[in-house]
Amino acid sequence: MNKQQDEKWMRHALSLANNAEQQGEIPVGAVLIKDGQIIGEGWNQSILQHDPSAHAEMMAIRQAGCVIENYRLIDTTLYVTLEPCPMCAGLLVHSRIRRLVFGASDYKSGAAGSVMNLLQDEKLNHQVEISSGVLAQECGDRLSAFFKRRRAEKKKLKQKKREES
After folding, report:
1. Residue 57 a catalytic site member
2. Which of 65, 52, 61 is closest to 25 using CA atoms?
């Protein structure tokens, strides 16, 4: 695939991550492309929807299935700002997504090579092509800034509670 195209769509995924952050969610965005067109997009909404499965990838893939009226998303590419977790990696395999492009690696729960690689396990009936590290610095910085801010907010809350006691 073309590096310029990958960066274009990853920038779109980063813009979707903004939606998550504005809603108090972990800033992860995803966009699913077929024949150069968006067929699904999403961002993390687990907190807002009280749904542990409402990850950016899940939201984009659910939307795409409705758009093309098929649960098989053959010949598609998913762009996501953070390496998918095992749940989302399983979804990519079951959806028959052809290619995954992700930005930041997830060394705690990444299932596209960091902790494990479910997407290319020969025991499974479908393997997904993986391109990693696209705009990795920008994607990683966005997440790091979010968690740094969140930790500072929690620290402030603790201090405030102590002062009120």
Report:
1. yes
2. 52
Q: Quick: pLDDT tens for 16-39.
A: 999 999 999 999 999 999 999 999
Question: CA-CA distance, 73 to 94, in Å (whole number)?
Answer: 9
Per-residue CA distances from 13 to 86, 136, 139 (Å)? 20, 12, 10
Instruction: Give the type of residue at 127.
Output: Q
The one catalytic residue in 25, 41, 57, 83 is 57
Count of all residues that appear for the chain in the document: 165
The annotation status of 139 as a binding-site residue, yes or no, is no
How many angstroms separate the first and last alpha carbons of the chain? 59
* Summary count for the chain: helices (H), strands (E): 5, 5
Q: d(Cα 106, Cα 84) in Å, to the nearest integer?
A: 8
Q: pLDDT tier at 47 (50, 70, 90 boundaries)?
A: very high
Q: What are phi and psi of 82, to 5 degrees?
A: -130, 140
Ligand-binding annotation for 85, yes or no, is: yes
